[in-house]
Amino acid sequence: MFALIAVLMAVDTVIDYRQNGSIVSQTFEILVFAAALAAIGIEARQLSSERSHSERLGRELSQTRADAQRFSREAQDALKGLGVAIDSQFDKWGLTPAERDIALLQLKGLRHKEIAELRKTSERTVRQQALSVYRKAGLSGRTDLAAFFLEDLLLPAPGVRHPADNPPADVG
After folding, report:
1. How many CA atoms lie within 13 A of 20 on its CB side?
2. Virtual torsion, Cα 75, 76, 79, 81, nearest 10 deg
3. What is the C-alpha to C-alpha distance for residues 18 and 7, in angstroms, rounded to an integer?
4. DSSP letter at 165?
5. 76-85: per-residue pLDDT in tens?
6. Under 8 Å between Cβ of 133 and 99
7. What is the reported pTM?
8. Euclidean distance between CA atoms 39 and 83, whole angstroms
9. Which of 95, 114, 131, 143 has its CB 3.0 to 4.6 Å from that of 90, i.e. a possible disulfide?
10. Is residue 162 over pLDDT 60?
């Protein structure tokens, strides 16, 4: 826009000069022409700055996407490792395939009724299989089952020590 104004003012100034226009009119037109050129310079600097900012944001976006993909791969690897560890523990406990299903679904947070609906069995059967899981694992219930697998995954709150870090003192 300012470029068009500058061109038109330059043309008008040349025409006025050739027609012996007044010096005041020519001076005014030259000032408008100069202002239009200054505005073009300011716009060019702003455009350059915005382009630079846009390029920087593009690089940051690319880096963020790469970081997200890396995190996703690492999380998938960790989940696979956790799955292998859970399967290994289920093997040590000697769980049947049905008991494994029950234990996994409980670890995912499903209730007995939801598990029964999902597995198309009775809630009573799910309860019996869950009790069998707890007995074979030496656990007292669903909370202990979850804690068994989650205890070492979660970092303690600041200032809270893990019980294993404080072995009981000899009393004697």
Report:
1. 0
2. -110
3. 17
4. G
5. 887 788 888 8
6. yes
7. 0.51
8. 64
9. 95
10. no
